[in-house]
Amino acid sequence: MATQGGLPLVPRPYAQIARQLGAAPDEVMQRLQRMLDRGVIRRIGAVPNHYSLGFRGNGMSVWDVPDEKIRKYGRKIGNLDFVSHAYHRPRQLPEWRYNLFAMVHGRNRDEVLVKVALIADLLGEDNRVHEVLFSTRILKKTGLRI
Amino acid sequence: MDDIDRAILNRLQDGFPICERPYRTAAEQLGVSEEELIRRLKRMLDNKQLSRFGPMFHAERLGGGLSLCAMRVPEARFERVADQVNAFQEVAHNYARDHAFNIWFVLATETPGRIDEVVAEIEKTTGYRVYNLPKQEEYFVGLKFEV
Fold first, then answer.
1. Is residue B138 over pLDDT 50?
2. CB contact under 8 A, A87 and B136
3. How many domains, chain B?
4. How many other C-beta atoms lie within 10 A of the C-beta of residue A133?
5. Is the overall model pTM greater than 0.95, yes or no?
6. Interface test with chain A among B13, B16, B18, by most A beta carbons within 10 Å
7. CB contact under 8 A, A140 and B97
8. Cβ–Cβ of B140/A36 closer than 8 Å?
9. What is the ipTM of this complex?
10. Which distant-in-sequence residues (6+ apart) come within 8 Å of B23 by Cβ?
């Protein structure tokens, strides 16, 4: 994938990719557009680095909510502006009872906890139990190879 | 980071045109020159304010496997197990978290079927259970991270 390192920062980036691949610029643009339409490419754009932008408190909040309501709540929580991703994941009983994950971003841990409390309010009694897991260290970080 | 950088960041999280001169098109909407937009994007990438600029691929739709996995490892064995886990090339990132489940990593494999195999290999190598937590549904509303 010629674009794995990112889009070239030149006036005609797609033409540059085309040159690397030995293809026509129009073909590269058409293929990218098709991948975008099919969802193979989520989007083309900027990915901010939360941490270096001052959002140093990133917490993985995990929730035990009724399975039949998870989609409704997942969509609501995924829509909150301080949540970057929300996922339904399988429980692993008895050790792991959480089925809804939401990444919460804030400037520090206290701010994250305030935002997590907002999610708890939103869920009300359907929040059986929740926790926030803060990362303490990056053990490994590589690009996604495809 | 000034107001123009912020506008670039906020605007270009939503998408970027596919056309002959996409920077020029985007720059016009932002009210800057093409050259300035490219220069600022370069600088934000160099400063690590941006972790990436370009297409974001959907790993599963490309045919690969992707999963989040967790482990519960006693503190005394933590470093050793973390090193063993990291040695697997399928481990894309790995974070220590302050919880009994203290090792959290993402597995990215060439095929979906390979996930279970790698999970079993990691369990065998480390002697600890790997809790495989693949996403069942994603509630992703695009990024709207305002700076």
1. yes
2. yes
3. 2
4. 20
5. no
6. B18
7. no
8. no
9. 0.79
10. A9, A11, A13, B34, B37, B38
- Per-residue model confidence as pLDDT tens digits over A58-69: 899 999 999 999
pLDDT at A145: 40
Q: Hunting for tokens 């001169």 — which residue is that?
A: B21
Q: Is the peptide bond prior to A90 cis by the omega test (within 30 degrees of 0)?
A: no
* B64 three-class SS: coil
Q: Residue B85 is part of which domain span?
A: 59-132
Counting every residue, how long is chain A?
A: 146
What pLDDT was estimated at residue B54? 92
Report the gap between the CA of A23 and the closest CA in chain B (Å). 14
- Torsion over CA of A29, A35, A39 and A44, rounded to 10 degrees? -30
For the domain A57-134, what is the CATH code? 3.30.70.3460
Chain B positions in Cβ-Cβ contact with residue A64 (cut-off 8 Å): none
Sign for the CA dihedral angle at B92, A81, A61, A123 comes to negative
Q: Is A9 on the interface with B (CB under 8 A)?
A: yes
CATH assignment of the domain containing B79: 3.30.70.3460
A92 DSSP assignment: B
pLDDT per position as a tens digit, A98-120 = 999 999 989 999 999 999 999 99
For residue B147, what pLDDT is reported?
A: 61
**Which residues 46-65 of B are in CB contact (within 8 Å) with A?**
47-59, 61-62, 64
Is B143 part of any domain?
no
Amino acid at B98: D
